[in-house]
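Query structure, 230 tokens:
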């Protein structure tokens, strides 16, 4: 092998090691509680809380995209599900900015509260998603393991966001407003096509919302921690 070929091989190996290292870092940060078990009056800086929230939200979005792609590949091919998903998410009742430009028009207090509402809106559907996927015949571990992980990390992210809001706006009690999900009967339908579409739509909405949360948090971190200088 010539020097050029050897350099390319070494470069590819280093890139692979870097990607694996980043993935392990995300998973290790995601698995750590905000405060140690039993800690009293635990104080975490706002910057650290935002760092953790951004890592968590990105991790959740990646898992959501992977889970959706796996489900689409295994169960949705040739069924035309994508054409039915327009405006069918349970969180569509929440007025969420569609892109960075729209999000920049919202003050950070309202955007923080919107993140809380979206995260709370997913508590119930994520719990039932795990339960119903467990009951699927020959449920792929690639889907079940991600559903379990996302449910847990969504709780962690919500806890972190509540701490962030408490530091940014101390003393202000935010009403626990969220969008109610009523899709459980559809996940339990006897008709296979209807049931599979319900799963597909839920995973599609989760991927969409997790992407929005990821973008909102990056914008909020830039505004609040770096005074929009980033």
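Result returned for the query:
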């Amino acid at each position: 092998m010539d020097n050029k070929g050897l350099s390319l091989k070494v470069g590819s190996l280093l890139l692979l090691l870097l990607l694996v290292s980043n993935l392990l870092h995300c998973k290790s940060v995601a698995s750590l509680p905000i405060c140690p078990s039993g800690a009293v009056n635990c104080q975490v800086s706002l910057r650290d809380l935002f760092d953790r929230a951004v890592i968590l939200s990105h991790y959740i979005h990646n898992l959501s995209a992977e889970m959706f792609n796996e489900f689409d590949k295994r169960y949705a091919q040739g069924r035309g599900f994508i054409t039915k998903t327009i405006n069918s998410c349970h969180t569509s009742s929440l007025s969420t900015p569609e892109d960075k430009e729209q999000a920049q028009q919202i003050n950070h207090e309202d955007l923080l509260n919107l993140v809380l509402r979206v995260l709370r809106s997913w508590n119930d559907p994520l719990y039932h998603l795990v339960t119903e996927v467990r009951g699927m015949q020959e449920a792929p571990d690639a889907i079940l393991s991600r559903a379990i992980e996302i449910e847990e990390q969504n709780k962690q992210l919500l806890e972190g966001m509540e701490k962030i809001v408490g530091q940014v706006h101390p003393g202000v009690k935010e009403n626990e407003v969220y969008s109610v999900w009523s899709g459980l009967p559809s996940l339990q339908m006897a008709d296979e096509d209807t049931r599979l579409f319900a799963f597909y739509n839920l995973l599609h909405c989760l991927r969409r919302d997790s992407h929005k949360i990821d973008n909102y948090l990056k914008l909020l971190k830039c505004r609040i921690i770096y005074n929009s200088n980033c």
